[in-house]
Amino acid sequence: MMPSVRRWWWALAPVLVWACAGGDGGSQGAGGRAAGAEAGGRGISAGRALEFVTAQVAFGPRVPGTEGHVAAGQWLDSILRARADTVIVQAFEHRTVEGRTLRLRNFFARFRPEDPTRVLFLSHWDTRPISDQARDASARRLPVPGANDGASGTAVLLALAELFDTVPPPIGVDLLLVDGEDYGDFGAERDVFLGSRHFVAHRPAGYRPLYGVLLDMVGDRELDLYIEGYSQQYAPEIVRRVWDLADRIGYGNVFHRSVRHTVKDDHVPLNEAKIQTINIIDFDYPYWHTPDDTPDKVSGESLRAVGDVLAALVYRGG
Ligand SMILES: [Zn+2]
After folding, report:
1. Each residue of 141-164: pLDDT tens digit?
2. What is the rounded distance in angstroms from the CA atom of residue 199 to the CA atom of residue 210?
């Protein structure tokens, strides 16, 4: 994803984050002891969600055109098939500006596919081929491991798939893992958002979820979720619903009620296609698009905070 306005104070961010983490060593993660209690046990497991992050990163970078990408895709497909009522794989090819042909796959896992009342949760599962935000110039041609940028949102959705398999949802739920979000040039908007654009163009006929929720970079140990600008612009009532619910179930310390960043991301193509979609994102992540985006920067408790809010949304009927 890409912020609409470049923020050069990024270089200072690691110092600020570590300064804030000083007190308890940052091991507490998001949410307090009471958090999630109101979900009545129908939330996700922090440990399981974190396992889904490390398992994805263990495939290596999930860069389109690599073996790790193909293998991770097979693994995601098998997990979703074991849990969801239906899995639709959207396989497609994309020719990049440099003339490479990428083979890409979206995984669209559906619970209660016949139910007209449904919600859509999505994340990207691919990772970026270059670490263009690395401070060390020699590191910039390395791929991003994508523990937070790619694996975190996907891990929450996999944990939710397990939950919905165990405790069936009262409404229809679609989990969409999109490919090719992070491949190319965000400034020029070339070779990026490939899976979400493909989904919008090839979604099931008459597909009308109540709304969509995109998860991107939701695993930071110091999770702070501010309202994202396009979400507030396109879907303010969905923002309010999600942030109100987060507050009610004990995650008001994580979901902050002010707009901070405005980020071009996979929710924009969906909103342009009239599917109101918000982006839950913590864009204050010092390891963004660097080789240091590794699982040790991610907390299971942070993943659980986000997963519990989405689970509560579903079990309350959307
Ligand atoms: Zn990215």
Report:
1. 999 999 999 999 999 999 999 999
2. 17
**Strands in the chain per DSSP E:** 2-3, 86-95, 101-111, 118-124, 172-178, 212-216, 225-227, 255-259, 263-264, 277-281
- From the list 93, 143, 147, 98, the residue with the least C-alpha distance to 125 is 147
4: CA distance to ligand 1 center in Å?
A: 14
Residue 253 Cα to ligand 1 midpoint, Å, equals: 25
CA of 33 to the centre of ligand 1 (A): 31
**Helices 151-166 & 46-58, crossing angle to 10 degrees?**
130
* Residue 277: closest CA among 219, 224, 221, 207: 207
**Residue 315 CA to ligand 1 centre (angstroms):** 30
Reported pTM: 0.89
Say how many Å lie between the CA of residue 1 and the centre of ligand 1: 5
Domain ranges of the chain: 28-315
| 8 A C-beta contact, residue 263 and residue 3 | yes
Q: Which fold would CATH assign to domain 28-315? A: Aminopeptidase (3.40.630)
Type of residue numbered 177: L
| Contact in structure between 86 and 113 (CB atoms under 8 Å) | yes
Å from CA of 267 to ligand 1 middle: 14
Q: CB burial class (10 A; 0-12, 13-18, 19+) of residue 45?
A: middle
How far away, in angstroms, is 289 Cα from ligand 1 center? 6
- The whole-angstrom separation of Cα 127 and Cα 195 is 13
Q: Is the pLDDT of residue 275 over 60?
A: yes
Token pair in block for residue 216:
């991107």
The tens digit of pLDDT for each residue in 217-232 reads: 999 999 999 999 999 9
The tokens describing 227, both together, are: 């309202």
Q: Identity (one letter) of the amino acid at 76?
A: L
Cα(288) to ligand 1 centroid in Å equals 7
How much distance in Å is there from the Cα of 307 to the middle of ligand 1? 20
